[in-house]
Every structure is written in C-alpha cells, then in structure tokens.
C-alpha cells in the first residue's frame, strides 16, 4: 500500500522544492510520512471547506497549492484559525502537503494546466527560470592510482553530477611538462630538471556554488605540489522551467470571443472574467500566468503576445499598460483578468494525475470542486458592449 511518503516523493519529483521562492513554505505541513494512503484530495486552498471535505471522504492526505503557514508562527494553538485547521487535520488522520511556487515554475506546472484549459499549444515559459549555474573543472593527473583518488575527491565535493547521474567525467591521455624551481618539493622529478610525464586530463562539471569546495578537494587529493587546473564558467542553458507560459490558439479570434472562451474554461466565480482592450482585436498568441501575474506584465509585453491572461491585475498598472499601447509601434497585449482561485484550479487535475500515475491507480485521488475563492457576492450592473459605446459617445 502507498504511504504519505510515496505520494510526497511523486509530487516533489513533479514539483521540485528547489524551484520554490525563498520566501515560500512548501512540503509536508503536518502528518506522518509512514502512514498508508488510500484516498487523496487535491485543492487550491487549505481552508475549512477543503479540510471538511477531506474528512468527509476519509482522505489520508490533502494536497493544496496555497500554503497554510506561509509566514512564520510560534505555535499552532487550536484557539487560532490556522491552528484549529492543523488540529482538525491531525485528529482526522489527514496529512497536509503544499506545492506552491515550485508548482508555478515546474514543467509542466500551474500555468501549463491553465494554458491547456484555454486550448493553447504551449511554446515555452513566460519568465524562464535559469538552471543552476555550472562550472567545468579540468585538471591533469599523472597516470596511476592518483587518478581514482582525485576523481573520488572531486565527486565527493559535488562535481560530476548530471541529472540523475553522479561521478560523471571525461578523461583523455596526454603529456604534461614542468620544471621544478628552487624551493619546490616536487612529487615527481627534481629541482632544475625539465620533466615530461604521462598524464590524464580529467574534466568534470560542478555547481558554481560548489566551486570553492571542489577546488579545495582537488588541491588536497592531487599528488602534485602545485596541481594545474582550468576552471571554466559554462554558458546558461535555456530552460522550460519558469513562471507563466506562452502559447498559441489554433486560429485567431476576437478579444470578446476569447474572453468568452476563458470564462467557459474556468469554474464560475463572483469575480468573473473581464478584459481590457479593443473587443474586436484578433487574439492568437497568448501569455498566461496562474495566480497573481502583475510581476510578469512586462514579460508579457516583451513576448509580443496578443493577450495576457492572469489574476489580480491592479487598476493603475492595467491603465498604464493600455496607455503605453496607444503610442507608436506594436500595441501592448490585451488583458484578461480572472479570479485567482479559478486560474489555479486547473492545476488540481494535473497534480491528481501525478499521484495516480505514481500509485498505479491504487489510491483514490479526487479533485475538490468546492469554490474557495474568497469573493462570494457579485452585484451591480455589468458593462455591455452597448454601454461601452454609449460611454464613448458621452466622452
């Protein structure tokens, strides 16, 4: 039978914790990793409604996108709202796991699910997340047992890891030359005499953050008093990881029709779906960002898309964005603003599929359909196309 730890391993493989922002709180919030799992519930928010649903269906694990304890706390007393949820989960035997900004930047991640819901063929990330910076170290070792010793020392210090492989290296044969000077204590040869030695050239990659440790390991393990080595900074590698996605519709459609497409694809909310731009503007290439996407507005402009779909856009940035599009050059993208919860809800099905695949269908995985968007009431008259025309005439 699958355990909480098994499900967590699958989710962290899909949404690596290293992708989480440094301010974020992801991973296991409460629960015993060794406990068996028969039912899992996936939801956007860890709130009373989803905790209650998890208890109703007998779920041993609740997986959410948003963290419960994002900011540091000194206790989880049951007399506080969040502490009460933790106690309820523990009493009900339900573990809580969160994948937040790591799921935002994963490939596929939150924005891939949003893009798929809208019928977009994804081209790549909107804001690419750079892969960890890499160096390459190249050194020259006399033929013999020292080669293994140096190789093992570099590997232990963090060099030679490529994907799921360790101790990766390339070696080639050559001839080294040196002449020890006064004061030297050569391991091979003698002072004042030119030496030529059969050597192996050893090359290994390493995380740039481990540079000091790898160089120290080389100096400690190398038989030469002054080992020769090259340390090269490798070029940044393009990545499919990152915030948001850019994609393309099967064919262009006017903004008003695209806005209807978005509304039909996402669960209904009091917030609804609203767009900013010419209603008849053709939309084909689209950027999306699940959750609050203000920070990626500049990237959406730079990508040259026709529209940008996200949540929580503010009045002034949106107004200034539209104003910028009235100048010379390509118009800025139309904006389509949706409810934060609705933009991230498609991810729940993606995460559920991750768990199903990892547990071979032996775990009952369900997606919560309870609306946990905080906005619950909408009222007032909605702007229509005729209203817009009338207001324009009055202006």
Automatic annotation (TrEMBL):
A divalent metal cation binds at residues 65-66, 104, 340, 344. Pfam families: DUF34_NIF3 (PF01784). The keyword Metal-binding applies. InterPro entries: DUF34/NIF3, DUF34/NIF3_bac, DUF34/NIF3_sf, N-reg_PII/ATP_PRibTrfase_C. Keywords: Hydrolase, Metal-binding. One of its GO terms (molecular function) is hydrolase activity. GO terms for cellular component: cytoplasm. Belongs to the GTP cyclohydrolase I type 2/NIF3 family. Homohexamer. This is GTP cyclohydrolase 1 type 2 homolog. It comes from Pseudonocardia hydrocarbonoxydans.
């Amino acid at each position: 039978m699958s355990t909480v730890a098994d499900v967590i391993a699958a989710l962290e493989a899909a949404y690596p914790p290293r992708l989480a922002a440094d301010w974020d709180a992801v991973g296991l919030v409460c629960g015993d990793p060794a406990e068996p799992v028969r039912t899992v519930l996936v939801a956007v928010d860890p709130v009373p409604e989803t905790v209650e649903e998890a208890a109703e269906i007998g779920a041993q694990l609740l997986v959410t996108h948003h963290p419960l304890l994002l900011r540091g706390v000194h206790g989880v007393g049951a007399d506080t709202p969040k502490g009460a949820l933790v106690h309820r989960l523990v009493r009900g035997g339900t573990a809580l796991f969160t994948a937040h900004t790591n799921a935002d930047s994963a490939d596929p991640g939150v924005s891939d699910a949003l893009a798929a819901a809208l019928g977009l063929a994804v081209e790549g990330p909107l804001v690419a997340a750079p892969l960890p910076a890499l160096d390459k170290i190249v050194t020259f070792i006399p033929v013999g047992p020292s080669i293994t010793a140096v190789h093992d020392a570099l590997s232990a210090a963090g060099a030679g890891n490529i994907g799921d492989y360790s101790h990766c290296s390339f070696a080639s044969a050559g001839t080294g030359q040196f002449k020890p000077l006064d004061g030297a204590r050569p391991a091979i040869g003698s002072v004042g005499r030119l030496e030529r030695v059969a050597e192996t050239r050893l090359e290994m990659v390493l995380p740039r953050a481990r540079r000091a440790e790898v160089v120290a390991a080389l100096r400690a393990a190398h038989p030469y008093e002054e080992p020769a080595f090259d340390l090269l900074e490798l070029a940044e590698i393009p990545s499919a990881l990152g915030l948001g996605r850019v994609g393309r519709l099967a064919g262009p459609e006017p903004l008003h029709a695209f806005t209807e497409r978005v509304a039909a694809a996402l669960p209904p909310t009091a917030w609804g779906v609203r767009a900013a731009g010419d209603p008849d503007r053709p939309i084909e290439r689209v950027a999306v960002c699940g959750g609050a996407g203000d920070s990626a507005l500049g990237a959406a402009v730079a990508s040259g898309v026709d529209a940008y779909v996200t949540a929580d856009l503010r009045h002034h940035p949106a107004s200034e964005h539209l104003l910028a599009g009235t100048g010379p050059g390509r118009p800025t993208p139309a904006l389509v603003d949706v409810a934060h919860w609705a933009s991230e809800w498609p991810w729940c099905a993606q995460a559920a599929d991750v768990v199903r695949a990892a547990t071979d269908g032996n775990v009952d995985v369900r997606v919560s359909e309870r609306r946990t968007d905080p906005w619950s009431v909408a009222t007032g008259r909605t702007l229509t196309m005729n209203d817009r025309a009338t207001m324009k005439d009055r202006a």
